[in-house]
Amino acid sequence: MSTTVVKFGGTSLADASQMKKVAAIIEQDPARKYAVASAPGKRFPDDIKITDLLYSCSSLAESDQNFEPVLKKIERRFQDIIDELGIAFDLKAEIDVIRDHLLTGAEKHYMASRGEYLNSRILAAYLNFDFVDPVYCIHFNEDGTLNSEKTREDLARTLSRSGHAVVAGFYGSLPDGSVHTFSRGGSDVTGGLVAEAVGADLYENWTDVSGLLAADPRVIENPRVVDFITYRELRILSYMGASVLHTDAVLPACRAGIPINIRNTNAPEDPGTMIVSSLPAGRAQYNVTGVAGRKGLSVVQAEKVMASDGAGYTALLLDIFKQLHVPFEQCLTGIDTISVVIRSDLFAPMKDRILRKIRDELTPDALFTKEDLAMITVVGEGGPESSAALVRMLRSVSDDGVEISTINQGAGDLNLIIGVREEDYEKTLKAIYRAID
Ligand code: ASP
User: Fold this and answer.
1) Domain residues for 373?
2) Where are the beta strands (DSSP E) in 179-227?
3) How many domains does the chain have?
């Protein structure tokens, strides 16, 4: 029988009625044997996530202030879930343990993890599944990076002993045994690790949207849902600002070639988005998978006649950024010109030093900067008509009177990055989307 790992996000587990939907989804398919749960998220737009309440408790305790009212709120939310689900669960004893921790040291990571810990125990009790505490099987190194090998081994061993289990998301432990969390949204990563460890056939990531949208809905009205996207395309779009999944969640699934399906707990009949290693053959519906962008970028452009003849010019220029500890986003080279794209917030405070060093050490014929730029990336590994799609997009952008500052074609059939002035960002996105939809 096939195995599916299901991960449910905070809004999917925000209250008892959501938990009931989750249970129905799990019970509907016997392949759904392993579940990963987040802490209760927002029930309505200005609600506060349990994880945020836990962080507040920790900061209040750290500064010797009264954390009791916040802890009470947390207890109330869990108690409501327990009562409405009608399960036996001694919440008071658990809250007492948390209180003791708060009184003896705030331990931010431990506190933040308690939302996942409690919610997963509650879900496991409701489903009659085993509960797996990742403190014993997800391992971080001393510097906070994941120890992937040990994690894979321990997770696989633990889960092989259990036919059905709920694993708490978001945390594991450091070598000294203390709790350590991933960065925010990290339960997605736990889901990827569990899927890899059990050799799952599918990793379903259940959230509150019916998949990844092909463009930012704040700019484009009703963008289509992406049906298939490759790991590589997703990585590029996420880097440029599209968010549907923690970026580190893709790695373990990609390593093991497990497809990830983004699904909507509130619309379980929607097929969602499939994240795969390569697009299914014959799927020529769209040449372009999606478009995303980022504002707040700057470009430094150096020109030097014969620069392209000297092998080391680009390396020397990039070395200046390295020496000054300023990371760059992209480097574009032309004949005798080199442009380096940098985040404006990192560039602005270092601008004078960077330009001075370039002038002194590389004596360029000309040195320009362009600030307040936006970069828009379009990805699509969808078919042979990529260059036609590319031309259509550029024509559409130029028809709308947008001046393109930089163009960069990355690896892949279609992975185009266009730089425009920040004020033209929305206009460009709309022009591109018009051309690709
Ligand atoms: N509860 C954590 C957060 O709010 C982790 C997660 O939901 O994935 O970031």
Assistant:
1) 290-436
2) 179-181, 202-207
3) 2
